[in-house]
Amino acid sequence: MIHSASLMGTAAALRSGQMDPVAYIDTLCAWIDTVDPQVHALLPEEDRRGRLQAEVAALQRRYPDPASRPPLYCIPVGIKDTFRVDGFPTRAGSRLPAELFAGEEASCVRALREAGACILGKTVTTEFAYFEPGETRNPHNLNHTPGGSSSGSVAAVAAGMCPLALGTQVIGSTIRPAAFCGIVGFKPTYGRIPIDGLVRCADSVEHVGYFTQSVADCSYVAPLLCRDWRGEDSVRVESLPVLGAPLSDGLYLAQASAEALAAFEEQLTLLKKAGYRIRRIPVLPDIEKINRQHMRMVFAEMARVHAPWFTRYEALYRPRTLAAIREGQTVSDEELRQEREGRARLREMIETLMKQAGIDLWVTPATPGPAPEGLDSTGSPLMNLPWTYAGLPAITVPAGLAANNLPLGLQCVGAAMADEQLLSWVAPMADILASRLQFLEDQA
């Protein structure tokens, strides 16, 4: 079910006229008709092909001159069904009435439209971006989860149904599914992409992220979505970054499986052979406390988000979402204030440690292991949680294969507001890991 979908290559061909947009959409829709009945990444839509062809025709009329065509001219983008998109209902993976969530289109969606994109459609999400899964399957193996909560978006990109899709991350819902599905997932610094127009899960850690098949494609999109993005000329990459890796016997890495840790050590060895300096750092010794603080804050904010409609529609909520909201109702305003303050303390601690140890990026396993079998669980986000809580920019790149031939990813985390530097540094690292990954795939 895996299929190539180059964003930059397709965008260049569409803008220049080398590729006909209507023919491209027709071919893409034919592929979707073949693969999505098995993957279930997209929410059903009557005559998707006709609507997309009409959108493309309107873009052709608007931009007749190739020189004036915007960067995402006629590129179809998948949008997680927690974003409000004009012309589409928003249900956030729930059984509640869509009218409850009506409102103005998300500004990040508008930004994509202004860049020339067309909307492929809404993608499947877990219920209210929490842990109750949808129907989406992992394109690498349909018997395994794609991860959550941005399940449909990640599966759509991995299966080549679109070269770009929006997701969100409150715990690990961009980094984890991207790793499970063998693609690139990027979560910028907290607040770098506006979160208006969302059916939100937890404001204090609500991040907009997105998925592509390469770091180059990810970097191509970043200036279009991230506030105050600095161009390549402002990012100085004079030498290889110094990488910080958590201690192998620390409590943070103890959350990962033996298989994931072994793969991580192989990735570090590969990067070290390529000239990268790696320093093992004692970090996150209080990870259990951090995990608890983060989750209590998320539950509390979920309860407050859902307060206007929870009593009336309680019977329509699924069990795990229901339990999270009920626990959130037990969190006092004072406790919530303390948990929110913990975000800044953790960020300061991590960035101080980076400066003291002389490291530029953190590298860790992106997940505790490969995608779990079955669709009842979306997998653990614990490898992502502390970096999300601190609001730091993170990206995962394909980095290995598990024994069952499912993907494993490497998570790279930078300092706050150093997103530009993070992407510049990670690109060559991804190329090094890709060469090893190709070898493993050839051997599989």
Automatic annotation (TrEMBL):
GO terms for molecular function: catalytic activity. SUPFAM superfamilies: Amidase signature (AS) enzymes. InterPro entries: Amidase, Amidase_dom, AS_sf. Gene3D superfamilies: Amidase signature (AS) domain (3.90.1300.10). Residues 25-423 form the Amidase domain. Pfam families: Amidase (PF01425). This is Amidase. It comes from Dictyobacter aurantiacus.
